[in-house]
Specification:
The protein has four domains: about 5-80; about 85-315, no CATH class; about 320-435; about 465-524, no CATH class. It is built from 14 helices and nine strands. The protein has helices at about 5-30, 30-85, 90-95, 110-130, 145-170, 180-195, 205-275, 280-315, 325-330, 345-350, 370-380, 400-410, 425-435, 455, and strands at about 135, 205, 320-325, 335-340, 360-370, 395-400, 490-495, 500, 520. Helix 5 (about 145-170) packs antiparallel against helix 6, helix 7 runs antiparallel to helix 8 (about 280-315) and helix 11 (about 370-380) packs across helix 12 (about 400-410). The model is unreliable at about 90-100, about 445-475 and about 510 (pLDDT under 50).
Length: about 525
Amino acid sequence: MAITDVFKTKQFKSDIERLTSENQYLNSLLTPEMRTAVSIKAEIQKLTAEKDSIQADIEESKRKRQDLVQEIFSLDKEIEKKKEFVIFMDDEMLYQDYGLYTPVYNLMNSEMYKDKLAVVREQQKSLIKNDRAANFPTNFTYNNSLAQGKKLVADNVKQILRAFNNECEAIIDKVKFNNVEAIRKRIIKSCEDLNKLNAKMQISIAPSYLDLKLQEMNLCYEYAIKKQEEKEEQKRIREEQREAQKLQKEIEEARRTSEKERIHYRNALHRLEIQMQSANETERAILEERRLEMQQQLDNIEEEIKQIDYREANQRAGYVYIISNIGSFGENVYKIGMTRRLEPMDRVDELGDASVPFAFDVHAMIFSDDAPALEAALHKAFDGKKVNMINTRREFFHVTLEEIEEVVKKNFDKTVEFTKIPNAEQYRESQMMRRQLGLGELVRQDAVVDNTPVSAAFTSPTPAPAPTPVPASSTPSVPSVKDITLDPSKEYLWTKWGVYEMPEPYQIYLAKGSRDDLKLVATI
């Protein structure tokens, strides 16, 4: 250590002692309030530094949140873009949104569809045979050889057509009413994908060949539909034949019974007349009264036989029935049908067999000389209110009894008695028993029916707009998720619109109405 350093050390010690003394003197001059102010100022400086740090963290979090929102937005855009290339084949997804298929050919029967399908397939074979099913270069060379180039092109053309035909065959077999458009898009996309894979060799499937494949798809679908229609028609014809056989059997049995009773009363009347010849005045008066009764019975039997002959001769005479089953189908759903049976209730009883939980109730039973015409008039009047819009054999209509009465009055000139309120005994008793057992009544869930006219339904469906999230500003009473502490003992549903508190466990009852047990507890 140098001598100068020793002197400097002594000087430093002297300065420290002097400054310490001055500091103690100044502190002695400070009042308690001034000391508190100094302490508070130091605390403020400390808190300000912490605030700046927290503010910086908040800004960083906001920046990260903005980056995430931007990333989510970009991903959503990419998802929407990729959806254009996705073809949904799952039935449940397709059932939710499909347009009605408009027939392209409308041929008369399935044989005509079969013939047309054979023609289209022959046209496909012709294009393949004449090398017009695909576009390809004719001057392609391979290893500087035109012959090898032609062979390579021919092999690739065969490969692309084989792949396209195999995929079309596999998916055309799956075409149904709810996926026609999806199948069409898939065929087109398959063609486009194969064309891209062979673009370097300038090989592509010809548009005319693709069009024939789309025609084949339409024909296959319409052929299947027509076959089903013909099957339903054959079923209807067989049912009519069974009804006619049952009617003929009823007529024969009724005629035998009436003939037997007529012979019985004729013989009894003949014996009574012989007995009257030898009877005195008093006995003759009693026998005359019995004779008049027998004659009345005989006249009634003759009238029954005339009615039987009339029903057998007039093939259009019968009963139009209007029945309901509120326990099975609910209110304001009526079946309007026709039977030519001598006893029409037999037909109603057959309809209320084990296929439905409750028996049908009759609101009106109308005998008409032209029952098919009256039935057709009622069906035509309520054509737009059929429950089953596809199968015309299902004669159920969603109408009121007053509407049916009005149409009957316009098409039938006789008085018809309608039963307004159905008995529905078993259904009402079942509801009563459920109440007594504390089970609660069965409540039917009514379906929402689109009232769009049928003509408008065959136009191209307009895609439904995407659901718009409810902005947070529309629910000012709900706090932000950052401002509350969620209860860990509860379950929550996290969505991009908010955090929802899940309801308590509950039992499911068949009740009309929308879900209203989700409660919004916080916004995002």
